[in-house]
């Protein structure tokens, strides 16, 4: 009998009403690819919440298995880089959007999309990091490549108790930055201080329309929030500083002026994780392996069972999840 496995499936009816369920599929139901992976762990990102609820048009092919991140073992391979038993990670590449993604016990993928699971991590730890931690690392790399060093002044992280924000805090603090966390959860100060935060500000200070230029309060920023928050982060960045923009939790707009760029030489650095080339991914995962204390991953992560993935994906959109959630298969 052909192998059957559990999968989350998002479907659409003729009227474009979306529904989601956990169902059983066979290997023949999977899309084309040159490797098949036994998924050991996955995670719930903000984007997965958008896909499962249909709140944003993340899914572009129907039906769809959502899930943008997975860690697991190669079962079969026609790709020269991979053999059965190899441990791998997948982040992005359109999985859960145009190609069947991570919320299934089996995934068929392109071998070119995969990176090896670093020896430093288990599959669950890698999914604790997931696209959020990998994006935080890409943001740190962008700042470093722009010549930013901790002696230039403080670093602000917005959305600090979210997935990207928590890892951005931990990675910057580990490299000696004085980290200012902007958060709506000022009551979570023990959590943020445990990750290395030196100062906490209420996110409302940044969430309304502000001045084109404000007092210089930080040298760099990692922003996963966008909108007025990013505009205010730019306005408060000191001369010659840089801000990595990677998210839109407040909104995709950028109601800013050019003043920080033309009067203070501030740089705005764009960060994308989905289509980042393999070399960049290998660099980010190698730095995550060397910079992250496993205790930090544990502090940021909670674990849910596969049966809870749909409910968890809905909760991430209302901001009721702190840090990261790993889904154990
Ligand atoms: P989370 O939901 O885990 O974190 C988002 C955080 O943003 C929240 O915890 C909250 O932090 C803050 N926030 C939420 N709503 C608002 C608001 N209205 N105003 C101000 N702050 C708000 O999501 P992730 O960390 O997984 O993702 C964060 C963003 O980054 C998303 O927009 C996501 O799409 C994007 N992203 C982009 C990637 C890329 O490739 N560029 C990759 C991964 C994510 P707090 O509670 O501390 O206030």
Structural class by sheet pairing and helices: alpha/beta
Q: Whole-number average pLDDT?
A: 96
Q: Output the CATH topology of the largest domain.
A: Quinone Oxidoreductase, Chain A, domain 1
> Can you identify the CATH class of the largest domain?
Alpha Beta
- In CATH terms, the superfamily of the largest domain is Medium-chain alcohol dehydrogenases, catalytic domain
Q: What's the total helix number? A: 10
Q: How many distinct folded domains? A: 2
Estimated share of beta-strand residues: 25-35%
How many strands, which pairing sense, and closed or not: the largest β-sheet? Answer: 7 strands, mixed
What spatial form do the alpha-carbon principal axes imply? globular
Beginning-to-end CA distance, first to last residue? 22 Å
Residue runs with pLDDT of under 50 for 5 or more positions: none
- SSE order, one letter for each helix or strand: EEEHEEEEHEHEHEHEHEHEHHEHE
- Multimeric state of these chains? single chain
Helix content: 25-40%
Annotated CATH architecture of the largest domain: Alpha-Beta Complex
Radius of gyration: 20 Å
The overall strand count is 15
What is bound: which ligands? NADPH dihydro-nicotinamide-adenine-dinucleotide phosphate
Pfam family, one: ADH_N
GO molecular function, one term: acryloyl-CoA reductase (NADPH) activity
InterPro entries: Acrylyl-CoA_reductase_AcuI, ADH-like_C, ADH-like_N, ER, GroES-like_sf, NAD(P)-bd_dom_sf, Zn-ADH-like_protein
Domain Enoyl reductase (ER): 15-327
């Amino acid at each position: 009998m052909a192998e059957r496995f559990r999968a989350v499936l998002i479907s659409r009816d003729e009227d474009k009403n979306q529904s989601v369920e956990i169902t059983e599929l066979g290997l023949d139901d999977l899309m084309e690819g040159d490797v098949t992976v036994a998924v050991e762990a996955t995670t719930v990102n903000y984007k997965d919440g958008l896909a499962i609820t249909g709140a944003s048009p993340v899914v572009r092919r129907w039906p769809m298995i959502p899930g943008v991140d997975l860690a697991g073992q190669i079962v079969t391979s026609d790709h020269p880089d991979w053999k059965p038993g190899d441990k791998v990670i997948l982040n992005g590449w359109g999985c859960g959007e145009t190609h069947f993604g991570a919320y299934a016990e089996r995934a068929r993928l392109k071998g070119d999309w995969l990176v090896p699971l670093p020896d430093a991590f288990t599959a669950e730890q890698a999914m604790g990091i997931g696209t959020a931690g990998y994006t935080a690392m890409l943001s740190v790399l962008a700042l470093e490549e722009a010549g930013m060093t901790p002696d230039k002044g403080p670093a602000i992280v917005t959305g600090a108790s979210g997935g990207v924000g928590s890892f951005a805090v931990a990675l910057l603090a580990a490299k000696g930055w004085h980290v200012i966390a902007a958060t709506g959860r000022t009551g979570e100060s023990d959590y943020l201080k445990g990750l290395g935060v030196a100062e906490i500000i209420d996110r409302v200070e940044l969430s309304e329309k502000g001045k084109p230029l404000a007092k210089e309060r930080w040298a760099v920023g990692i922003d996963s929030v966008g909108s007025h928050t990013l505009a205010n982060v730019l306005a408060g960045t000191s001369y010659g500083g840089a801000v990595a923009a990677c998210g839109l939790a407040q909104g995709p707009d950028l109601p800013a002026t050019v003043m920080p760029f033309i009067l203070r030489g501030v740089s705005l650095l764009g960060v994308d994780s989905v289509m980042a080339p393999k070399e960049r991914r290998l660099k980010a995962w190698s730095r995550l392996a060397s910079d992250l204390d496993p205790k930090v991953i544990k502090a940021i992560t909670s674990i849910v069972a596969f049966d809870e993935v749909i409910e968890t994906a809905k909760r991430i959109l209302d901001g009721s999840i702190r840090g990261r959630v790993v889904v154990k298969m």
